Automatic annotation (TrEMBL):
<feature type="domain" description="Aminoglycoside phosphotransferase">
    <location>
        <begin position="28"/>
        <end position="261"/>
    </location>
</feature>
<comment type="similarity">
    <text>Belongs to the pseudomonas-type ThrB family.</text>
</comment>
<dbReference type="InterPro" id="IPR005280">
    <property type="entry name" value="Homoserine_kinase_II"/>
</dbReference>
<keyword id="KW-0547">Nucleotide-binding</keyword>
<keyword id="KW-0067">ATP-binding</keyword>
<keyword id="KW-0791">Threonine biosynthesis</keyword>
<dbReference type="Pfam" id="PF01636">
    <property type="entry name" value="APH"/>
</dbReference>
<dbReference type="GO" id="GO:0004413">
    <property type="term" value="F:homoserine kinase activity"/>
</dbReference>
<dbReference type="InterPro" id="IPR050249">
    <property type="entry name" value="Pseudomonas-type_ThrB"/>
</dbReference>
<dbReference type="InterPro" id="IPR011009">
    <property type="entry name" value="Kinase-like_dom_sf"/>
</dbReference>
<comment type="pathway">
    <text>Amino-acid biosynthesis; L-threonine biosynthesis; L-threonine from L-aspartate: step 4/5.</text>
</comment>
<dbReference type="GO" id="GO:0009088">
    <property type="term" value="P:threonine biosynthetic process"/>
</dbReference>
<protein>
    <recommendedName>
        <fullName>Homoserine kinase</fullName>
        <ecNumber>2.7.1.39</ecNumber>
    </recommendedName>
</protein>
<keyword id="KW-0418">Kinase</keyword>
<keyword id="KW-0028">Amino-acid biosynthesis</keyword>
<dbReference type="InterPro" id="IPR002575">
    <property type="entry name" value="Aminoglycoside_PTrfase"/>
</dbReference>
<keyword id="KW-0808">Transferase</keyword>
Length: 323
């Protein structure tokens, strides 16, 4: 249950008085999610999600909230943070940083088909283009410097073969980061965690899937578009959890992405390395969460072995070209 902080009705109603959204009709804790406390909040003027931030610092939060505001104002289907009467997107509730965002329709699909993958590919490309004039500069806090810092912390928990794999991949990524191809990659603020549980779908009248929107921007940061795309396909386009690509899903996602923006030559050249980078990022974070949990961590950690398999699969076989 991901309600780490319990908010009483009175407390919530008092906090909501600083918004211009009418009476509190109802609210309910959201069970899923592992990072923050989330509540659905129904008000006279609409349906919203209240988030109390448990992990992120108030210094980082404006980057995420303003990014969502920017994307929403550019027509991207994502939560739109609501300003209070003083114009603030972030305030304090129950001694925690708190924000209210619009509630999107739909539900996550953990069993997506090619049609879902195509909607995600299109949305991702539109998000990339919409982020071009977003001025926030927070780097991806789970990028290369974090991998370098985290690797020695998790090595003691790994077998000899796993340690060799991790060290070798990290060295490859460090070399790549110093090279000419990396320097040529387009980059902006990106989502950086566009997994299946972070996209909601509902249905059009004819029964075909329709994008409700993209949620959970709390791992966003400035990084390359091709890294963000690699993160996305490594979760959406695989055959179960064995790491191999499902060709139909991959073709659907990449085809829809390319229809909005054509990747550059540098991105095409970077693609195999970025697929490995994206696998390394989540192998490392899952190892870290499993072996070095934060104090009071209450949630079952996700399985690092899935991303170890994805990383091995990306190293062992050539992926379909990006362009
Ligand atoms: N704006 C929104 N509209 C509709 N539903 C939402 C919205 N934001 C969050 N949710 C619901 O709340 C759940 C948890 O939200 P979220 O994924 O942001 O939690 P988290 O703890 O921050 O993240 P995570 O566990 O993915 O790192 C989502 O799976 C979704 O069902
Ligand atoms: N998407 C991440 C969790 C952090 O949101 C993972 O599956 O490891």
């Amino acid at each position: 249950m991901a309600v780490f902080t319990t908010v009483s009705r009175d407390e919530l109603a008092r906090w909501l008085q600083s918004f211009d959204l009418g009476e509190l009709l109802g609210y309910e804790g959201i069970a899923s999610g592992i990072e923050n406390t989330n509540y659905f909040v129904d008000l006279a003027r609409g349906r919203f999600v209240l988030t109390l931030f448990e992990r992120l610092s108030p210094q980082e939060l404006p980057f995420y909230l303003e990014l969502m505001k920017h994307l929403a104002s550019h027509g991207i289907a994502c939560p739109d943070p609501v300003a209070d009467r003083e114009g603030r997107l972030l305030s304090t509730l129950h001694a925690k940083p708190a924000a209210l965002v619009t509630r999107l329709a739909g539900r996550a699909r953990m069993d997506p088909g090619p049609a879902h993958c195509a909607l995600v590919g299109e949305a991702l490309a539109r998000m990339h283009l919409a982020a071009v004039d977003y001025p926030g500069t927070l780097p991806n806090l789970r990028g290369l410097p974090w991998w370098v810092e985290t690797t020695p912390k998790v090595l003691p928990f790994l077998s000899t073969d796993q340690s060799a794999l991790l060290r070798d991949e990290l060295a490859t990524q460090q070399r790549f980061a110093d090279g000419r191809v990396c320097a040529a990659l387009p980059r902006t603020a990106v989502h950086a965690d566009l997994f299946r549980d972070n996209v909601l779908f509902d249905q059009a009248a004819d029964g075909s899937p329709r994008l409700g929107g993209v949620i959970d921007f709390y791992f966003a940061g400035v990084d390359s578009w091709v890294f963000d795309l690699a993160v996305t396909v490594n979760d959406w386009c695989i055959v179960d959890a064995d790491g191999r690509f499902d060709d139909a899903k991959l073709a659907a996602l990449l085809g829809a992405y390319r229809a909005v923006r054509r990747p550059s030559e540098a991105e095409a050249e970077a693609w195999p390395t970025m697929l490995r980078a994206a696998a390394l990022r989540f192998w490392l974070s899952r190892l870290f969460d499993l072996h070095l949990p934060r104090p009071a961590e209450m949630v079952t950690p996700k399985d690092p072995a899935e991303f170890e398999r994805i990383l091995s699969a990306r190293r062992d076989s050539a992926s379909a070209p990006l362009c």
